[in-house]
Specification:
The longest helix has 16 residues. By secondary structure, this protein is of the alpha+beta class. Helices cover about 50% and strands about 15% of the residues. α2 runs antiparallel to α3.
């Protein structure tokens, strides 16, 4: 919305970073996080969650899998 309305200066850095990150890139990182969790590499899994969070992406673990949304 911010780019369309020429209001990028009003968007938060997290918002801009999150939208610069494609859905495919997010899905790839979630797959990598799932593999890390499966092999009990929790440090890597946590690092991926933090990387996504820093880009404005929230992860929600559920019995049906991981869902994500932008902040």
């Amino acid at each position: 919305w911010a780019a369309k309305e020429n209001r990028l200066n009003e968007a938060t850095p997290e918002l801009i970073a999150g939208y610069a990150f494609s859905a495919e890139a997010i899905d790839r990182l979630i797959e990598e996080r799932n593999r890390a969790r499966k092999t009990r590499d929790f440090a890597r899994a946590d690092a991926i969650r933090k990387e996504l969070s820093d880009k404005g992406i929230l992860l929600e673990d559920s019995p049906d899998g991981v869902r994500w949304r932008r902040k």
